[in-house]
């Protein structure tokens, strides 16, 4: 199974019309996110490949047949006929760019592990678009911030729009399929959107804990060969304000692969901006 970004953020399939232009919501969500002021043997049996692997179940098998089974019956089926169980679940409950032609090709004795062979999907679409189509205003994330009584609820529609705008921002600054992006951010909806945005365009993200030193961050950027970093001006943790942008500035001095640093404002404290820096609040799309 692989992540497809061939369509990336082009067309209505991937980008809703509301996400293609303007910065109203993007700035609104960024503003809402700110802080004012400061078992081995059994596995071998299940995954061993039979001499004649069965083809995927026909579409609709899960919804028409398996969804009516009780939990014990479903579990029993997953053990006795994993191809039918997982093939039906994957075919009916995930959205595929290209359908898989074989449920699994596994042989642990030789180290060959492949699931949903031939299939292509986009993780971001399955996390967001499928929910927006059914219930766009349902809450996707509840962010319990460090400041008591200031929780932020983000709907699937809002998260999709933010993800698409971040994805377009990355693409407009040269981030392509296969490029690596370091995410050095505090826990927030924007951190989630950054990961989903990378998946949407086929970029590879590496999340670095926003408490690591500049040396530790630099080492991870260098190991991955990151082309960009996504960060915030500051983070808030346990009533403490932590400068993140200055840590990134120190780290990228020894990371020649970094071409852009995308910066969001978590607090009201302005961050010093340099030649590599892209302030997310000021990004506009045609």
TrEMBL record:
<feature type="domain" description="Acetyl-coenzyme A synthetase N-terminal">
    <location>
        <begin position="73"/>
        <end position="127"/>
    </location>
</feature>
<comment type="similarity">
    <text>Belongs to the ATP-dependent AMP-binding enzyme family.</text>
</comment>
<dbReference type="GO" id="GO:0005739">
    <property type="term" value="C:mitochondrion"/>
</dbReference>
<dbReference type="InterPro" id="IPR000873">
    <property type="entry name" value="AMP-dep_synth/lig_dom"/>
</dbReference>
<dbReference type="InterPro" id="IPR042099">
    <property type="entry name" value="ANL_N_sf"/>
</dbReference>
<feature type="region of interest" description="Disordered">
    <location>
        <begin position="36"/>
        <end position="66"/>
    </location>
</feature>
<dbReference type="InterPro" id="IPR032387">
    <property type="entry name" value="ACAS_N"/>
</dbReference>
<protein>
    <recommendedName>
        <fullName>acetate--CoA ligase</fullName>
        <ecNumber>6.2.1.1</ecNumber>
    </recommendedName>
</protein>
<feature type="domain" description="AMP-dependent synthetase/ligase">
    <location>
        <begin position="129"/>
        <end position="268"/>
    </location>
</feature>
<dbReference type="GO" id="GO:0003987">
    <property type="term" value="F:acetate-CoA ligase activity"/>
</dbReference>
<dbReference type="Pfam" id="PF00501">
    <property type="entry name" value="AMP-binding"/>
</dbReference>
<dbReference type="GO" id="GO:0006085">
    <property type="term" value="P:acetyl-CoA biosynthetic process"/>
</dbReference>
<dbReference type="Pfam" id="PF16177">
    <property type="entry name" value="ACAS_N"/>
</dbReference>
């Amino acid at each position: 199974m692989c992540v497809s970004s061939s369509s990336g953020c082009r067309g209505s399939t991937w980008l809703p019309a509301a996400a293609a232009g303007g910065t109203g919501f993007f700035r609104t969500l960024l503003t809402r996110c700110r802080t004012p002021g400061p078992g081995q043997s059994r596995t071998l049996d299940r995954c061993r490949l039979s001499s004649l692997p069965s083809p995927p179940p026909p579409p609709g098998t899960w919804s028409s047949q398996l969804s009516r089974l009780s939990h014990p019956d479903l579990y029993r089926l997953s053990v006795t006929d994993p191809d039918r169980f997982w093939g039906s679940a994957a075919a009916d409950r995930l959205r595929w760019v290209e359908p898989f032609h074989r449920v699994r090709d596994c042989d642990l004795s030789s180290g060959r592990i492949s699931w949903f062979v031939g299939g292509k999907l986009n993780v971001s679409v399955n996390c967001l678009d499928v929910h927006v189509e059914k219930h766009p205003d349902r809450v996707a994330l509840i962010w319990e911030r460090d400041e008591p009584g200031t929780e932020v609820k983000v709907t699937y529609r809002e998260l999709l729009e933010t993800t698409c705008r971040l994805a377009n921002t990355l693409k407009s600054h040269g981030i392509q399929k296969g490029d690596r992006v370091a995410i050095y951010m505090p826990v927030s909806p924007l951190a989630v959107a950054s990961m989903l945005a990378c998946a949407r365009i086929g970029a590879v993200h590496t999340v670095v804990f926003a408490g690591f030193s500049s040396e530790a961050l630099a080492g991870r950027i260098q190991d991955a060969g990151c082309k960009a970093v996504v960060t915030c001006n500051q983070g808030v943790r346990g009533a403490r304000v932590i400068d993140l942008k200055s840590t990134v500035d120190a780290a990228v001095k020894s990371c020649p692969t970094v071409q852009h640093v995308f910066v969001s404002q978590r607090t009201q404290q302005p961050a010093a901006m340099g030649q590599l820096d892209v302030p997310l609040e000021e990004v506009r799309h045609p």
